[in-house]
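ingest -> validate -> predict -> emit
validate: passed (alphabet ok, no gaps, 123 aa)
predict: started
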Amino acid sequence: MIEISTSSTTTTLTVAGDLDLAERDQFPEIAARVVGLRRQLVVVDMCRVTFMDSTGAAFLISLADAGRKRGGATVLRGADPRDLFVIEICGALDLFRIDTDHRCESGVEQSDFRRPDGASAPA
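emit:
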């Protein structure tokens, strides 16, 4: 599930559950709504994402790319290290700002993902 909320300068997408191939049918409509809102800052709250594959990453990348073309920015808030790794493998981590200060509400756990090369999680 993806919910969209707005303020005068920001569009926030709150994602819950899987962000993957099974959810791809809703991505074009959501992307069109977000782009149509024309806010300079898009914040993607990923605290409740349970799984993300390359399809979900491609959706986020398309949002960030569209925002960057308008001179805006896309922030990932509460992203799990495994999700950041998927975006990094896609070669697109530099399209995003990562909110390292945000702490998800209690009850939402981060995975114990470790990169295959042993390096620290992308930040």
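Residues 42 and 111 are 24 Å apart (CA to CA).
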